[in-house]
Amino acid sequence: MFIDREKELKRLSESIARKEPLMIVYGRRRVGKTALALRFSENKKKIYFLARESGNLKKFMETAADTVPDISNIKEDWEMLFRFLDGKVDLIIIDEFQNLIKENKEILSTFQAIVDLYLKKTKLLILGSSVSMITSKVLSYQSPLYGRKSLSLKIKPLDVFESIKFYSGISPEEMVNIYGFTDGIPYYLEKVKPPFKKWIDNELANPTFIRDEIDFLLRYEFDEPSTYKYILEAIANGNTDMGKIKNYCGFKKTDVTPYLRNLITVGMITRMVPITETKRTRKGRYYLSDNFITFWFRFIYPRLSEIEEGILRFKDFKQEYNSYLGFIFEKIAYQYIVKKQPWQFTRIGKWWDKQDEIDIVTLDENKKKVTFCEVKWKDISNPEKIMDELIRKSENVYPNMKKDYVLFARSFKKKSDRAVCIGLKNMF
C-alpha cells in the first residue's frame, strides 16, 4: 500500500526540475523510502538498482541492461556506465546506497565525478537506510558529494492520522492499540491485521520478525550495537536523564554523550527540555522516538525466553500494555494539536519541575497566551479533580500570560466548564 506522502512527492518533483542531478532520500529501515521512490518514478523511464554487500558494479550493469541493452558493450566502470546512460533514461535510483560505500571506500569520489561531469540530462536518486552512514559519509561537509544535491530528504514515520488509512473501518481505540506497536512505520502497519490482540498473539506464537528486529536495526546503524542496546533499554524503562542511564547500564567511567548523540542522529531517541528552558539546560530528558522500539524493550526483550518456548501471549502483559498506551496517547494528542491546530500557537512542548509535570504546553507568543494540556488514557468521570491539579501545577508557569486549559481523554462521562475536553473519537 502507498499512503499519503504528498509533501515528499512534491519535494521530489520540485527537485528533479533543478539543475543539480543528485537527490538523496534517507531514513530508518521499513519507513517507506523505496515505495516513495517507485511511486515518484512511475511515469519515468528509470533504472532501479538495489545495492548489495558485494559485486555491485557488475550487478548494476546487468540491471541497467534490462532497460538499456546496449550498455552491455560498455566497459565495466562506474563513470563510463553513467556517461553512457546520461540522456537514455530519466532517472537512476540506487537503493541501499550505503552498501556501495561499505564495498568501496572510494565510491563517493567516483560519484562526485559522475555528478560533476557526466549527468547532464539524467537525474540520480540515492536511497539510504543507514541514517548514521548517510549523514556522516554523504551529507557531511567532508563528503565528496557535499553541495551537489538538489534535495536531501529524511523520511519520517507516518503520524497516527495517516496510519489509520491502512485499515478499513477500525475504531480509534483499536488504532491506538496498533499505533503503540507499529509507530507509523509502513512495513509494520502492513504486517498487522486487526484485531491487534489476535494478530499479536499469532506473531508471538510464530515470530516472523518481532524477535530479531531490534538487533537487525542496531547492527545496520552501529559498530557497537550492544552498548546502544543497553542505553535504549535504560530509556525504555524510564531512565530519562543521563545519570540514571549511566547507573542502569553500569557505565561508571563511560561517557555516554557520544552514544546519545548518535542515537539522536539516527532518530531512535530525542532529547526534550521543559518549554520554559533553553536547550543548554541540564534538565534535559531522553525519550525513545519510535513506538516499535519502545514496545520491543518494554514487552519483548524481557520475555525472549517465553517467545523461544512459544508460550508468550498478549494476556501476559495486557494490563501493562494498557498503561503503556498512556504514553502513546500523549504522543497522539501532541500530533493532533500540531496537525489539526485547534488553537493558535507559536511553540509547543512539555513542562516539568521536580515532581510536577504537564503533558503538553503551547505558547502563543503574539497574543501572550499559554495553553496547558493534560492527557489521560482513561474514561474520565470527575474532570474537576484533574483540573484542580492542572491549575495548581501551572500556577507559576508563565504567570503573566493568559491561561487556557485542555483535557484529552479516551472518553468523558462528564466534562469541565474550566477546560476544553477532547475525547478520542473527536480527534479522528
Describe the structure.
The protein has helices at residues 6-16, 33-40, 56-65, 78-85, 98-103, 107-118, 131-138, 160-163, 172-182, 186-191, 196-205, 213-221, 225-236, 242-249, 257-265, 291-300, 304-309, 318-340, 383-394, 424-427; strands at residues 22-26, 46-50, 91-95, 123-128, 149-154, 269-272, 285-288, 347-353, 356-364, 369-380, 402-412, 420-423. Strand 8 and strand 9 form a beta hairpin. The protein folds into 3 domains: 6-154, P-loop containing nucleotide triphosphate hydrolases (Rossmann fold, 3-Layer(aba) Sandwich), CATH 3.40.50.300; 161-328, Winged helix-like DNA-binding domain superfamily/Winged helix DNA-binding domain (Arc Repressor Mutant, subunit A, Orthogonal Bundle); 336-427, Trna Endonuclease, Chain: A, domain 1 (3-Layer(aba) Sandwich), CATH 3.40.1350. The chain is α/β, with parallel strands linked by helices and 428 residues long.
Summarize the structure.
The chain is α/β, with parallel strands linked by helices and 428 residues long.
Outline type? globular
Average pLDDT works out at: 96
CATH names the topology of the largest domain as Arc Repressor Mutant, subunit A
Helix/strand class: alpha/beta
CATH homology superfamily name of the largest domain: Winged helix-like DNA-binding domain superfamily/Winged helix DNA-binding domain
The share of residues in extended strands comes to: 15-25%
Low-confidence stretches: none
Strand order of the largest sheet: 2-3-4-1-5
Radius of gyration: 24 Å
Helix content: 40-55%
CATH second-level architecture of the largest domain = Orthogonal Bundle
Structure annotation, total helices: 20
CATH class identity of the largest domain: Mainly Alpha
